[in-house]
Amino acid sequence: MHRRHELDLLHHGNGAGGVGTGHNHKAPPRTAQWQTPHRPNGYDHYYHNDEPDLDLVETAFAEGFVAASDPTSFLRLARIPFEATDGEGRRLVLLRVECGTVVDVGSVSPHLGGGSMRYSPLPRRMTTRRQRLHFIYFDGSGPRPLSLAETRTLTEAS
Predict the structure, then answer these.
(1) How buried is residue 146: exposed, middle or buried, by Cβ count under 10 Å (0-12/13-18/19+)?
(2) Dist CA 80 CA 8 (whole Å)
(3) C-alpha distances in angstroms, 49 versus 68, 80, 112, 146, 153?
(4) Structure confidence by residue, pLDDT tens digits, 119-146
(5) Does the pTM exceed 0.70?
(6) SS (H, E, C) the chain
(7) Closest by CA position to 13, among listed 1, 30, 35, 32
(8) What are the residue boundaries of the structural domains of the chain, listed by start?
């Protein structure tokens, strides 16, 4: 038995392999994950817009911005407005850009009945890393974090 089959036998039908799968057997239906804690509100709208691969563009922006010798000029090259108006006519001014790495190291799932949760640390091969990028604007009443996609909907103030 080679390494792949050894790993398959450890998963017991949870959708990641398991008994009954292999060369001559149909795979069981995959288990649906009920949560995705790292997706922000409005995730579907954020990634389903007119620009293809916006998530890759955002990652490249974060990498370049952190390495830029002149962050202000980098923002100008990327056409990120310093002063803008949102769709509701509110004036926004850019205060800061937040870039960072987020690493998911655990998951939670509800117990049967939903009254409590089960926590599971993730093994190394299941951890995920991604860049987080937010443009923090002030809208007159407080800070307002915007994604790269949201900054592209702003109208630059003259």
Answers:
(1) buried
(2) 48
(3) 28, 18, 37, 15, 11
(4) 999 999 999 988 889 999 999 999 999 9
(5) no
(6) CCHHHHHHHCCCCCCCCCCCCECCECCCCCCCCCCCCCCCCCHHHHHCCCCCCHHHHHHHHHHHHHHCCCHHHHHHHCCCCCEEECCCCCEEEEEEEEEEEEEECEEEEECCCCCCEEEEECCHHHCEEEEEEEEEEECCCCEEEECHHHHCCCEECC
(7) 30
(8) 1-32, 38-156
Token pair of 51, please?
A: 């620009």
Give the residue, 140 or 12, on which the prediction is more confident: 140
77 alpha carbon, distance to own chain's centre: 24
